[in-house]
Amino acid sequence: MRMVQKFGGTSLADPAALRRAAELTAQAWTEGHRVAVVVSAQGDTTDELIEKAMLLTTKPAPRELDMLLCAGEQMSAALFAMELTRRGIPAVSLTGAQAGIHTTSRYGSAEILDISPQRVCALLEQGTVPVVAGFQGADAQGDLTTLGRGGSDTTAVALAAALKADLCRIYTDVDGVYDRDPRRFPDAHRFASIGYDEMLALAERGAQVLHPRCVQLAREHHIPLEVRSTFTDTPGTRVDTNKF
Ligand code: ADP
Ligand code: ASP
Ligand code: MG
């Protein structure tokens, strides 16, 4: 099957985590799936980049801030592709722009207008894993933009829709979607599956695990999501039309 795997910041925070994440991609690829990967910036990189800007000015030009923040995801993409290649799996890293992600010019909270998936499709067809920098795109002028905090989830689902993927797996640092934040409420209940509408309501109430825009896109394009932990083998939570 054709799938998109997305790895969040904690899943890539250090070499051991990144190796574990790449192993999950390698497994899916070896099983014969066509896999496209979307990566976030490592650990606290995005916050650190914002701090760097703030040391210079409390009002950075939005265009320049986006240019800076895009670097975080680009680092992850290159490192992830290097790790896959080291394992003998052909992989190519791509910026959002190289992956054909066209956005509005609203720096800091740009919206994806459309995706020209030809390059990513061609890589998939030849058995290569495209590793796409999440959270970013380019506007009509070619200037780099970012999609808002947590936006790599949205990149993953938008790409899955453009590729007509069968599944989008969101790998993160918890083993699924809970009724409340499991880090704050140890007695929170994990859903084996949840409908788009219910998931959207949770995301809009601030459940960080999925960005609201990504849930809307998944619902619109009928892309099933799976929220899983990078670090454990539990099956996670399935998000789709049916709750069962
Ligand atoms: P990533 O870097 O992988 O995108 P995030 O930090 O954005 O990860 O999202 C995962 C975090 O979301 C978890 O560590 C958890 O604390 C938090 N979270 C908040 N509400 C929920 C919820 N209802 N179910 C699962 N996780 C939640
Ligand atoms: N790196 C970005 C952020 O920290 C995007 C993401 O992780 O989804 O918000
Ligand atoms: Mg996130």
Characterise the protein shown here.
With 244 residues, this protein is of the alpha/beta class. A hairpin with a 5-residue loop joins strand 7 and strand 8 (144-146). It is built from seven helices and twelve strands. It binds adenosine-5'-diphosphate, aspartic acid and magnesium ion. Magnesium ion (MG) is lined by residues 8, 150, 153, 208.
Largest beta-sheet details? 8 strands, mixed
Instruction: Describe the global form.
Output: globular
> Termini separation (Å)?
22 Å
- Oligomeric organization of the protein chains: single chain
The helix count comes to 7
Radius of gyration: 17 Å
| Strand count | 12
Could you tell me the strand content as a percent range?
Answer: 15-25%
H-E string: EHEHHEEEHEEEHEEHHEE
What low-confidence regions span 5 or more consecutive residues with pLDDT below 50?
A: none
Strand order of the largest sheet: 3-6-2-1-9-11-12-10
Helix fraction by DSSP (H/I, runs of at least 4)? 25-40%
Global structural class: alpha/beta
Q: What molecules are bound to this protein?
A: adenosine-5'-diphosphate, aspartic acid, magnesium ion
Please, what is the average pLDDT?
97
